Amino acid sequence: MIYPEIDESQALNLSKLNPEALDVTAQLQSSLLDFTGIFYKKLMGRDYIISQPIGIESHVKQICDALTDVHEGRCRKLMIEIPPRAGKSSLVIFFIAWAMSINPKCNFIYTSYSHDLVIKHTSTIRDIMQLQDYKTLFGVRLSRDTNAKDFFKTEQGGEIMGSGTSGSILGNGAGIRGCREFFSGALIIDDAHNPEKMFISKKESDEIYNWYAYKALDRLNGLDYQPIIIIGHRMGKNDLQQRIIDTSLPNEWRRLTIPALFDNETKSFYPEEYSVETLLDLKKRFKYLFYTKMQQSPPDQAENLFSESSFEIKNEAPEMLFTFITADTAETSKTYNDPTVFSFFGVYKIDKLDNTYGLHWIDCEQMWVEPKDLESRFMSFYSSCCRFNTKPSFVAIEKKSTGVTLLSTLKSYQGMEIIDVDRTAASKDKLSRFISVQPYINKRLVSFTKHANHSQMCIEHCIQISPDGSHSRDDIMDTLYDGIKLGLIDSVISQRFSKKDDKNNAVIRSFSDDFMSIQRLKEARYN
Question: For residues 67 and 55, is the Cβ–Cβ distance under 8 A?
Answer without folding.
Answer: no
